[in-house]
Amino acid sequence: MFTMLLLQAAPPSNWALFFGHFHPLIVHLPIGFLLIAGVLELGRRMGRITVSNSAISAVLFWSAVSATVACVFGYLLSLGGGYDTEILEEHQWQGIGVAAFAWVAWFMKSDRFADRIPLSSILYVPALVVSIVLLMVAGHHGGSLTHGSDYLTQYTPEPFRTLAGIPPRKENESTIATPIADINNALVYNQVVNPILQARCVQCHNAEKSKGDLRFDTPQMIQKGGEGGPVFVAGKGVDSEMVKRCLLPLEDDEHMPPKGKTQLTDSQVAILSWWIDQGASFDKKVSDLAVTDAVRPALAELGGGPATGGSKPGVAATGPAPEPEVLKMKVSAANATAVEAARKTGLLVMPLSKEQNQLEVSAVNAKTFSDADAATLPALSEQLVWLKLSNTSVGDGTLAQVAKLKNLHKLHLEGTKITDSGLKNLKGLQNLAYLNLYGTAISDAGLVELAGLKNLRTLYLWQTKVSPAGVEQLKKAMPQLEIVGGLDAQAIATFATSVTQPAGK
User: Fold this and answer.
1) Model's pTM, two decimal places?
2) Which comes out higher in pLDDT, residue 83 or 108?
């Protein structure tokens, strides 16, 4: 026991965690083998299946082996921490019990050992039944560790809920975001932010599984933060860990949610960043906050029409933004050959509006998409209004092709190889309203090239080479432009003050 405590106290090695992460994969093998053994044995005894004892014995052998391996890998996974101790201990002993009784059932069934063991024919069935029962209980606790103790029972309907002795379900337990009748009167945290956290974060950060000692299940726990400190800094959305982790490349170990989990959408990230920018309040309504152009479409998606928001000192309240004319425009249907050519490069070509024949084109599954592949884009010039080339191999050569997309409304270039000189190609895109340059090498020289885009309303510049001077200059030229990231409002204000102060002040 003392040795076990020492092992648990020492930080787990990368090798331990590597093999431990195979536990969810391996654990399905004993589940399948044991259930097959049970079905075969039941069918044989009922005369419905003709199967030899040696066949059932072979299935039991591999169920015992895989259960043992799953126990070892499960222990290694537990060294990473972040699990409810009581449930974890129960799950571990139940898993060990599954393996132990699976071995007993095999010994009792095996032609090699059955004859040597007294009462083997009597002990065999109880051992098999106990192993299957423990398997079900261990599976329940495994689900509780991952999803919470009420994972199986959370949505139990009446009257079964009462009959099973399950407490009535509270209204605020719902994790499903429902349309909001009036977005302006919606509670920002309860109705807008919390559904996002419940759907994307709480699975790994709750009372029973708190990875990184971090929980997202209650406002108090969110404000507490985790072992790395606070997850948000009120007033600084893109500088807060909650948002920064979502914006990291998917392959980065620090990216959240982890690769393989359902990721946050652009709208969800925009909402979280806006909520923090506005002070991360847990009790205010949307109408109490200033709704920016960057978040207005995301809030409108939740239902009930556009959000207008309120006003703050120094911040003018803005009315609902009219729908851009380009999104109302009906164009001819895209040429089928052109669509197929784009798809052959790995692009997803999806209808954005069937009535107007407009298209969204995404390289989410085509990370090797290059400048050469971009030659397929101009053939969709009329129909293409939303283009996502995030984290691909494209550079300035692609922007020369993008320049021909006269109806382009949104353009994602985050994580690409574009440079300042390439942005010159965008000058003619007079319908462009959204541009994401996050994580690129763009500097102040590139911002100058954007000044002529009269309809540009949202620009993402986080983790670029822009300076306070460059941002301030662009804001003067384009006062209607919402700049997200790169510099917060306080940094820009400080810079502006410093350059206007008389010498010696």
Assistant:
1) 0.46
2) 108
Domain residue ranges of the chain, discontinuous segments joined by +:
8-147, 183-217+234-253+264-316, 327-500
Q: Report whether 78 contacts 146 (CB < 8 A).
A: no
> Is the confidence at residue 309, as pLDDT, over 70?
no
Report the C-alpha gap between 139 and 141 in whole angstroms. Answer: 5
Q: Which two tokens stand for residue 324?
A: 């851009």
φ, ψ of residue 422 in degrees (nearest 5): -65, -30
In sequence order, what DSSP letters do the residues of 105-155 get, joined into one string?
A: HHHHH-TTTGGGSTTHHHHHHHHHHHHHHHHHHHHHHHHHHHH-TTTTTTT
Alpha helices in 237-387 (DSSP H): 241-247, 266-277, 296-300, 325-328, 336-344
247 Cβ neighbours under 8 A, 6+ residues apart:
238, 269, 438, 439, 462
pLDDT exceeds 70 at position 428: yes
Residues in the chain: 505
Q: Which H or E run includes 90?
A: helix 85-109
Contact 337, 330 (CB under 8 A): no
Q: Which residue has the tokens 């990370």?
A: 367
Structure tokens at 98: 């599954």
CATH fold for the domain made of 327-500: 3.80.10
pLDDT digits (tens, 9 = 90+) for 393-409: 999 999 999 999 999 99
Q: Which of 76-90, 271-285, 456-470 has the lowest mean pLDDT?
A: 76-90
Report which DSSP code applies to 191. I
310-336 burial by CB neighbour count: b if 16+ within 10 A, else e? Answer: eeeeeeeebeeeeeeebbeeebeebee
Q: CA dist 443 to 417, 419, 467, Å?
A: 13, 8, 7
Helix axes 28-45 and 85-109, enclosed angle (nearest 10): 40
What pLDDT, in 10s, does the model give residues 458-500? Answer: 888 878 899 888 888 898 899 888 887 654 444 434 433 433 3
Residue-wise over 35-51: b if at least 16 C-beta within 10 A, else e? eebbebbeebeeeeeee
Distance CA 465, CA 458 (A): 18
Who's near 35: CB < 8 A, 6+ residues apart?
132, 135
Report pLDDT for 410: 92
